[in-house]
Amino acid sequence: MPDQLVWGMEVFLNGLMTGVLYSLVALGFVLIFKASGIFNYAQGVLALFAALTLVGFMDGQVPFSNLINAIFGTELHHFGWSVPALLAVALTMAVMVLLAWAVNKLIFHHLVGQPPIILFMATIGLAYFLEGFGDIMWGADIKKLDIGLPQGVNGFIDDFTYNIFGYGFFIDNLDLWATAVAALLVVALILFAQYTKQGRAMRAVADDHQAALSVGISLDFIWVMVWSLAGFVALVAGIMWGTKSGVQFSLSLIALKALPVLMLGGFTSIPGAIVGGLIIGVGEKLFEFAIGPMIGGATENWFAYVLALIVLVFRPQGLFGEKIIERV
Amino acid sequence: MFDASEGYTTEDGRQIGGVVMEMKHITLRFGGVVAIEDISFDIREGEIRAIIGPNGAGKSSMLNVISGFYNPQEGEVFYKGEKRPPMKPYQVARQGIARTFQNIALFDGMSVLDNIMTGRIRHMKAGLFAQSLWKGGAEREEVENREAVEKIIDFLEIQRIRKTPVGRLPYGLKKRVELARALAAEPSILLLDEPMAGMNVEEKEDMSRFVLDVNDEFGTTTVLIEHDMGVVMDVSDRVVVMDYGRKIGDGTPDEVRGNQDVIDAYLGVAHD
Predict the structure, then answer these.
(1) Buried b vs exposed e over B129-153: b needs ≥16 C-beta within 10 Å?
(2) Which residues of chain A have pLDDT under 50?
(3) pLDDT beneath 70, residues of chain B
(4) Which of A91, A162, A248, B69 meets the CB 3.0–4.6 Å disulfide criterion with A168?
């Protein structure tokens, strides 16, 4: 088999793995958009905030220590203990639920019935607030996140491919884990939405607020639940990205990468978010591998957006979105 | 509890019980506009109670007060003998007051079956975690609720479309699905906001038959809004007539028909 083809296959696989991470972020967007019609610009910052909080808990950081030190002249930094990873994840999830409650109570509860652009602006405000809040709470330095997920080249795949092609594929264990977790998450979310009372209520709220109220569904409860779910997805995405490249501000920018994923997959489709993420992940890696060298590289920065643009021209609702039919 | 002793039997042999809901001096304003002005009436258990009036009389506003979508500035609502504090619509729904909407409010993306299942929400007790893990009675509960829903589907003759997404159904069937969803709640009071609006003659006949059958079979207390006098007079036990936000008549269809104010309102005598 020619070398180019074998390398291409490796690039393809790595693209799939990257795509899964894009999908994870996009999933958070879709959840909130479906249930409340809000395009949540803050989803990326939510992932950053979750990762920061997780690291903070694990390292036993004192929250707001810089602020406290500045006001009281103290020298606080760490409590001096470290929390086991699993417990820290649970604590972080509790913080995300609390955040979901606060976001609904303080912002979106008051904006019911406002046009989408107002809701969108509110999420931009939320994004900047959370970014600063995370900084004040946990500090702005780049942090290392390690909750014990295996990292480094997967020996089995390396050996296996070496025996077949005479060339060992480099697949990161962390990416394999991310893929498994993402797959599990999607299946769980779909089952939840289809077969539980709360899931049914969630879909009901997405369809019609008045009707949902009339059968006894509390909109506030559903919105807090959906923001919590989005917080959970953000936490998972934050863990994966944070472990891969450190917890830092640029984590929140992956939200921008989720945009073309959403345009591709459609804003309302959970499977769409997954497939969209995979297409973008594979597409940008293969494009960089095959075409990149001819045009000077760095195509990964723009490829996703151009692809999304092309899809928009032919299918404005995305590949999987609900087709909009206007009756005249 | 409310007093169910003072009931009576109708000509066709149905049992009408005591007062289940009483509206006392309800006034509802939107800014300077008075939608409802000092209206009082009661609803008895098992009866079909109609609210009629010309367009803009405040009928829908009244229904929205009963279902908690609007909170009146003045007046009191008594439900099962107790004064009801101001409530959110979903809390009222959980107390057993189900409704339909004039312009149909269904979950278009969901199947007919799922739509009707949402009506059962007030009968679902299993919590978030039990539901997620599909444990602790959640499964048994789902099966029981499914059975109740299937009964209603049979009753309203919509078996054929049970898996169809509601968005694809024609208007008349949508109205029927909405009725089914409200019935699934096994409501103490069923509120129907113009159930026959926009229907052709055949659909209207079907719908009035269903309203009567539901009342007959389950003894469902029904409050019905219509501006089509003919339909109302045929199906209802007692009628409230509204005009310009005020009550101008209240009684059996025959009594109301003979009321001079009502005749004026419908024939359009100038208001002074």
Answers:
(1) ebbbeeeeebeebbeebeebbeebb
(2) none
(3) 1-6, 126-136, 267-272
(4) A162
Contact B166, B177 (CB under 8 A): yes
**B258 interfaces chain A, CB cutoff of 8 Å:** no
Q: How far apart are CA B189 and CA B43, in angstroms?
A: 9
- What SS3 class is residue B82? strand
Q: Could you tell me the residue range of the domain that residue B66 belongs to? A: 8-96+187-267
Separation of alpha carbons B105 and B32, rounded Å: 29
The two tokens of residue A168 are 């060992």
The Cα-based distances of A136 to A67, A166, B5, B131 in angstroms read 7, 52, 67, 38
- Enter the pTM of the model: 0.83
Question: Quick check: helix, strand or coil at residue B150?
Answer: helix
Other CB atoms within a 10 A radius of the CB of residue B86 amount to 9
A209-222 pLDDT, tens digit each: 889 999 999 999 99
Residue A265 CB contacts under 8 Å (≥ 6 apart), including other chains? A26, A30, A271, A272, A273, A274, A275, A276, A277, A318, A319, A320, A321
Closest Cα in chain A, distance from residue B263 (Å) = 34
What sign for the dihedral angle of Cα A232, A237, A243, A249? negative
Kindly report the backbone phi and psi dihedral angles of residue B107, in degrees, each rounded to the nearest multiple of 5, phi listed first: -95, 95
Give the integer Cα–Cα distance in Å for A304 and A66: 39
In tens, the pLDDT along A229-285 reads 999 999 998 998 888 888 988 888 877 788 888 888 888 788 888 889 999 999 999
- B229 lies in some domain: yes
User: How many whole angstroms from its chain centre is CA A149?
Assistant: 18
Q: Is residue A27 part of a domain?
A: yes
What are A's interface residues with B at a Cβ cutoff of 8 A?
192, 195-198, 200-201, 203-204, 206-208, 210-219, 225, 322
CATH label of the domain that carries residue A282: 1.10.3470
Q: Nearest by CB to B109, which of A207, A212, A225?
A: A207
Q: Do the chains contact at B93 and A216, CB–CB below 8 Å?
A: yes
Q: Helix, strand, or coil here: B193?
A: strand
Identify the DSSP state of A61: B
- Give the domain CATH number at B67: 3.40.50.300
Considering its fold, how many domains does chain A have in total?
1
Would an 8 Å CB–CB cutoff place B128 in contact with chain A? yes
- Percent of the residues in chain B that have a pLDDT greater than 70, as a whole number: 91
Q: In chain A, what residues touch B90 (CB-CB under 8 Å)?
A: 212-213, 216-219
Across the interface, do B121 and A211 touch by the CB < 8 Å criterion? no
CB atoms within 10 A of CB A158: 15
Q: Which of A33, A185, A197, A220 to mutate to test the interface with B (most CBs of B within 10 A)?
A: A197
Q: Is residue A182 part of a domain?
A: yes
Of A197, A213, A219, the CB nearest to B124: A197
Residues A35-55: tens digit of each pLDDT: 777 888 899 899 999 999 999
> What percent helix, strand, coil does chain A show, rounded to 5?
75, 0, 25
Q: Angle A114-A235-A299 (CA atoms, 0-180°, nearest 5)?
A: 85
